[in-house]
Task: inverse folding
């Protein structure tokens, strides 16, 4: 029996995805023999309502100078973060000289919207290569992890923040209590914390188990976020569903009593009760759905192999690592995966060692089928690859169900 990372309540896993590598650990052939694996098990805490990994690799293994994800590779995400920045500026900036801090700011895709408006800003980014890219683009960035010590230093250097932002970052952090203590220090009395992460309700409804991998220590719900932040005297004042990452939630929080609470919060909390997010049987059913999805995907790929059909993957995402290793899908079923990130190209997928190729190679010799691992960017990818379908290519989807689509 393990202990909850939030409240120390006893927890036990409701699903195991087996031995998994570092999800973003794309590697060369000479690195195969030393590849790191860990047990990817997920538990639900009935006390604080948090869904979490039972154990997580050391953070330096996941976030370092070789981090293989740059946010700016997606035009859709650039537009999304522009909207996020405008939302904060319009609704929550009241001082004449506002200051915004973003945790896990990556290559500055969101903060550039503040920089271009000459708004004081600071990115706190632990991965050296993406932090350096942000600095090249004129984004004020410090390369470190955020905690109480970092908060004190930022206040000393720049004063308190009007907004503390994060996008697809908070769910990565196992030491959330230290982060919230830092936020309490850094945030102005009328300031807000606003962050987005994949939403548990969508993961359960869509069986999108690929949202679970080493970096995602937690899968948040409103209930778990409300409980966590209230323990640090914050209040959940708004929650806004987002379509990004296959279903996310934007949480807005402030110091207790500092802001009115949106009626949306109560409505969404009620929805969570209807979804059964507080019941253990919901997670047992999720485990069964994951196993059924695996069976259907592997059966389809094996059937296509017997028919001598060429199958490639599209988008070497972190999420694809969970799918490939849980389903034990290797180069015998998917000959390569096309991806636009230069750091991944010419390397191999974590664990299953499928070659990573360029989009140009994908277009040079179209396969019969392409497994869409970047399903959350489906519209953008389909728009970029219209010729593939025009020439008879078909997409294989596995969320919310395994199916072939044209």
Result:
């Amino acid at each position: 029996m393990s202990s909850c990372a939030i409240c120390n309540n006893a927890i036990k896993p409701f699903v195991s995805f087996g031995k998994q590598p570092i999800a973003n650990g794309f590697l060369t052939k000479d690195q195969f023999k030393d590849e790191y694996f860990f047990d990817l098990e997920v538990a639900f805490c009935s006390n604080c309502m948090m869904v979490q990994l039972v154990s997580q690799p050391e953070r330096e293994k996941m976030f370092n100078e070789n981090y293989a994800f740059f946010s700016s590779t997606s035009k859709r995400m650039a537009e999304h973060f522009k909207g996020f920045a405008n939302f904060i500026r319009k609704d929550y900036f009241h001082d004449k000289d506002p200051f915004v801090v973003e945790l896990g700011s990556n290559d500055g895709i969101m903060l550039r919207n503040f920089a271009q408006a000459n708004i004081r800003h600071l990115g706190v980014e632990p991965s050296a290569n993406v932090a350096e890219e942000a600095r090249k683009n004129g984004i004020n960035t410090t390369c470190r992890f955020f905690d109480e010590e970092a908060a004190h230093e930022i206040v000393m250097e720049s004063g308190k923040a009007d907004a503390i932002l994060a996008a697809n970052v908070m769910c990565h952090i196992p030491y959330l209590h230290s982060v919230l203590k830092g936020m309490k220090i850094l945030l102005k009395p009328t300031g807000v914390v606003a962050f987005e992460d994949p939403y548990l309700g969508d993961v359960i409804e869509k069986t999108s188990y690929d949202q679970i991998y080493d970096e995602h220590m937690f899968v948040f719900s409103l209930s778990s976020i409300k409980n966590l932040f209230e323990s640090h005297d914050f209040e959940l004042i708004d929650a806004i569903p987002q379509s990004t990452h296959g279903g996310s939630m934007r949480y807005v929080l402030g110091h207790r009593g500092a802001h009115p609470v949106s009626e949306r919060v109560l409505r969404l909390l009620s929805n969570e009760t209807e979804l059964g997010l507080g019941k253990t049987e919901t997670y047992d059913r999720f485990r069964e759905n994951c196993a059924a999805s695996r069976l259907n995907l592997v059966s389809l790929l094996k059937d296509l192999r017997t028919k001598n059909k060429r199958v490639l993957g599209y988008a070497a995402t972190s999420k694809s690592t969970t799918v490939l290793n849980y389903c034990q899908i290797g180069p015998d079923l998917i000959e390569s995966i096309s991806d636009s990130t230069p750091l991944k190209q010419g390397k191999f997928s974590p664990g299953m060692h499928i070659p990573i190729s360029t989009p140009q190679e994908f277009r040079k010799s179209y396969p019969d089928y392409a497994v869409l691992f970047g399903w959350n960017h489906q519209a953008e990818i389909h728009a970029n690859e219209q010729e593939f379908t025009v020439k008879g290519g078909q997409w294989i989807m596995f969320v919310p169900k395994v199916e072939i689509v044209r």
About this structure: The mean pLDDT is 94. The first helix runs from residue 59 to 62. The two ends are 46 Å apart (CA to CA). The chain is about 35% helix and 25% strand.
